[in-house]
């Protein structure tokens, strides 16, 4: 059984709104800065990439690793966070 962080639970519990990219589970200051430098400054921008990849968590995790240098756990945490958010709100 996998456990989720408080950050993850908070994110998936409410609408996206104008949340910062660092509000995503698995994305801290360092990865957030790398994503912001590429134009992914808000969580909804990263969600857009997730949707472009047809909500495929494995493809998204690989994209995130390439785009930000995230490790496998960080990428998987972010993918799971976005997947659960989509299940709750889309």
From TrEMBL:
GO cellular component: condensed chromosome; nucleus
Pfam families: SAM_BAF (PF02961)
InterPro entries in the cross-refs: BAF, BAF_prot, BAF_sf
Keyword Nucleus found: yes
GO MF annotation list: DNA binding
Organism expressing this protein natively: Myripristis murdjan (pinecone soldierfish)
The entry's keywords: Nucleus
Entry-linked SUPFAM superfamilies: Barrier-to-autointegration factor, BAF
A GO BP annotation: chromosome organization
Location of this chain's protein in the cell: Nucleus
Domain of life: Eukaryota
Keyword Transmembrane: no
SMART domains per record: BAF
The name this protein goes by in its record: Barrier-to-autointegration factor-like protein
């Amino acid at each position: 059984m996998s456990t989720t962080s408080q950050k993850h639970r908070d994110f998936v519990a409410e609408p996206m709104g104008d949340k910062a990219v660092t509000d995503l589970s698995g994305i801290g200051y360092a990865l957030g800065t790398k994503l912001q430098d590429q134009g992914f400054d808000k969580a909804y921008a990263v969600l857009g990439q997730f949707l472009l990849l047809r909500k495929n968590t494995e493809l998204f995790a690989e994209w995130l690793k390439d785009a930000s240098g995230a490790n496998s756990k960080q990428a998987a945490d972010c993918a799971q966070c976005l997947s659960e958010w989509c299940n709750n709100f889309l």
